Amino acid sequence: MTELHEVQITEEKPLLLPPLQPIPGKKHSVETPYGLVAFTVHGTPKPKRPAILTYHDVGLNHQSCFETLFRFEDMQEIVKNFVVVHVDAPGMEEGAPLFPLGYQYPSLDQLADMIPCILQYLNFTSIIGIGVGAGAYILARYSLSHPDTVEGLVLINIDPNAKGWMDWAAHKLSGLTSSIPEMILAHLFSQEELSSCTELVQQYREALVGAPNLSNIQLYWSSYNTRRDLNFERGGDVTLKCPVMLVVGDQAPHEDAVVECNSKLDPTQTSFLKMADSGGQPQLTQPGKLTEAFKYFVQGMGYMASSCMTRLSRSRTASLSSAASGEGSQSRSRTLSQNSESGSPQQPPRPAPGSGAHTMEVSC
Question: Is residue 323 part of a domain?
């Protein structure tokens, strides 16, 4: 078993940004077997490159979940190299009308089944998915049923497990004593963030309490809490077949679930990134760290290989090189030597039989 290495990276104070103005993009909607779904496209398709497709968590939409990350300065190099599709769950987009009383909101499985309609509408053949919370589950479910269309996944705060009886009872009890906004905030943020009532938590609490589509949000929340188990099994038939980066903040509400998910996935295909000082929403509080990790991730897939290496990839490569110093000249870096404007990616080299896992926990 390859030794795990921790890479400590100092970072500036987590960003607490004012409300963002939407980044202009082309808004679309498409009818699916489970209703209308809205999405926003930024950029133009790049030949022989996948689209980056994002899916947001409960209580958020694509703007409140991802604009901090996609506005970040270092992220612009990535955005220029890929077309980006931000999906809004039904009823979560800005200005969405309220669903009528008794409306049957799609299950998370059905939300995943809407994605092929989006790709067909846009004539896209493959994606790199970035999902948070419920969105991470949806993209994982989609990848299980459409593995040939998913080149990579970044799953933040994923909980692949269905709620057990104890979880169900605790959820019902909390529903008697807490409002929907407070329950969703406990899902989004760490206890430390909630206790200290950070500026970010207060900003999102006000947005939830005053949300004109709160009844729609409650329906999405209910679908998340009735999700099925993804039944991942290491070495089994049910697994993610593409490169995966699992991300969670230290002390985040979903830390244990992400650690468990990591233990069930193929270690030769999975990277585990636990981010210090990021709270429950690392894409909001530490976009710089996440951008660095994502750039390294796409380099490992064979894209943007000529891009300058970031602090995270330099530190990680140095750590790997040090660990491999006694193992001959075999390279441990998954970054491939390939022109950033080339076509289809080359696959990273497979580990030799019996070489063990290449999964690494990076605490940064």
Answer: no
